[in-house]
Amino acid sequence: MAVSLFQHTRWPALAVPHDAATESDLERVGRAARGEPQAQAWLLQQVLPRVRRVTRALLGTAADADDAAQLALLAILRSASTYRGEASLAAWAKRIAVRTTLRYLAGERRTPSAPVASEPDGEELAAADPTNPSEALARDVREYLDELPEAQRTAILLQHALGHSVEEIAALTGVSPDTVKGRLKLGTATLRKRARQEIAIGRRRQS
Amino acid sequence: MKPIDPHQDDSLTEDATEDDRFAALVAAEARGEPVSPGDAAFRRRYEEIHPDATAEAGLWAALGTLGDTGEPPAGLGDADLLARVLQRASTPIRPTAARRRGVAVTVTAVALAATLMVAFAAELRARWSTLGAPLAAATGSAPQTPSVPVTTGEPPRPPVAAPSVEPTPVELGAAPALPVPAPIAAPAPITHLEATHRDLLAPSADELLRRAQDHLGGGRAREAVEAYRELVARYPASGEGRAALISLGRLALDDGHGAEALGYLDRYLRSPGPLDEEARYWRIEALRRLGRFAAEAAAIDEFLAHHPASVHAERLRTRAGSGR
């Protein structure tokens, strides 16, 4: 379909999003909880993009993300009877998806993170994808994350990729907010240090 | 490091340093969240003070877009994933060994009870038959089944369906009194489930695009962005979904979210399409907005190489010639 993209004008500032469930959502989730196939399909369809985002952000491979997404969607169906509409459907589903994915991660007993990589060589820098939004970086963001201890990596992902607050991360991971702050601070500092090092190396080699 | 903005309203971490606040802001912007004027001012000041911050921002922006559902699916497609989940949800719980033993005992007990009841019924019937003749004589009515066949000159016919005193053997599965649970429907075929959720629930790509354009026409930018995002999430490979990436990039750019805009436009350009020219043009604008002037110059060269006759070409040549 041809779309004119040059017809946009300036738009007003974005309004505060509505964050409460509608009554029809409640009714439909209730029907899903009672096992109505159409309501269940509707519920899954509604939450799928959010679940996908959570599992893909927290897990490194597509296969793991798909497995965790299936578990999360089943957990959402099983929990449908507990939905009271106090939060938006998306926020409610996201919490379940995050918890399920973290449990999946814990169950996977992943191998420890790889040791900190050596300085990237010139080929790696030259091979940086020119169309990547992080094109100034030498490596994929996953590689930077893999250098962090898992607890720090999870906290960073929950905050930066999924937008959770410190308090929410504390509740989701079962630690105190101070612990979360510490993990975020350490993890962010490590990532920043590595990124700055590699950016500086790349500039020196370009000059 | 000295505080840059004394009016920090950062809600992420109360004691975050400016570095952490910058990282969180860039990631939030890449996630498509609105940025307050105070945060935007903080970011400008931070980038002025830290020239490397613009390059470093790529890391935080990449973090913000991790897991974005607009990415080309590398694993299961949405339809397959939903079909699997719905199938698993409709599959009955497989009985455990203990539960199976319990069911077998119940079935046997019920079958035995049914057998005894049949035998008891046969015994009653036999007694009724022997008492029936005198009772009939007394009342003048004939019993339904005479104990002695009436002689009519014809050869005696064998009694039809005469009740037997022998209990009828009852098969376990055929016990009439067996409380058989309601049959559980077999899981529907995947194709049916796919058709169900597709046909009944999901708006089409065209509907979502129309919805987004209606919102834009009505000045409802937030709703338009939501519709475009839903379009990209549901139909990332469709023409409408790909076009929505550029619309989202434009809208993000209009709202000052350069990193987010760049993410959408880069995603479009990962595979060639009919809107490459627009995507490349707005990518140049996004890079300029982000202050990534070297990347902007490279993007202009790329644009001119691909679209030398574009209406934007002359202006971009002038910009490239002036060093910006």
Description:
The complex is a heterodimer of chains A (207) and B (324). Chain A is mostly helical and 207 residues long. Chain A is built from nine helices and no strands. Chain A has helices spanning 23-33, 37-58, 62-78, 89-108, 122-126, 141-146, 150-161, 166-173, 177-206. With 324 residues, chain B is mainly α. Chain B has 13 helices and no strands. Chain B has helices spanning 18-30, 37-49, 53-64, 78-90, 97-139, 190-200, 205-217, 221-234, 239-254, 258-269, 276-290, 293-306, 313-321. The longest helix of chain B is centred in the middle third of the chain and has 43 residues, at 97-139. The model of chain B is unreliable at 1-15 and 132-200 (pLDDT under 50).
Structural class of chain B: mainly alpha
Structure annotation, total helices of chain B = 13
Largest sheet of chain A: none
How many β strands of chain B by DSSP? 0
Tally of contiguous helical segments of chain A: 9
Order of helices and strands of chain B: HHHHHHHHHHHHH
Mass-distribution shape of chain B: elongated
Structural class of chain A: mainly alpha
Poorly predicted segments of chain B:
1-15, 132-200
The percent of residues in helical segments of chain A reads: 55-70%
Distance between the termini of chain A: 46 Å
Mean pLDDT of chain B: 70
Return Rg of chain A in Å: 21 Å
Oligomer: heterodimer
Strand content of chain A: under 5%
Using a beta-carbon cutoff below 8 angstroms, give the protein chain pair with the largest interface and the number of residues from each chain. Answer: A-B, 71 and 83 residues
Rg value of chain B: 40 Å
What order do the helices and strands of chain A follow? Answer: HHHHHHHHH
Main beta sheet of chain B = none
Number of strands of chain A: 0
- In angstroms, what separates the terminal alpha carbons of chain B? 32 Å
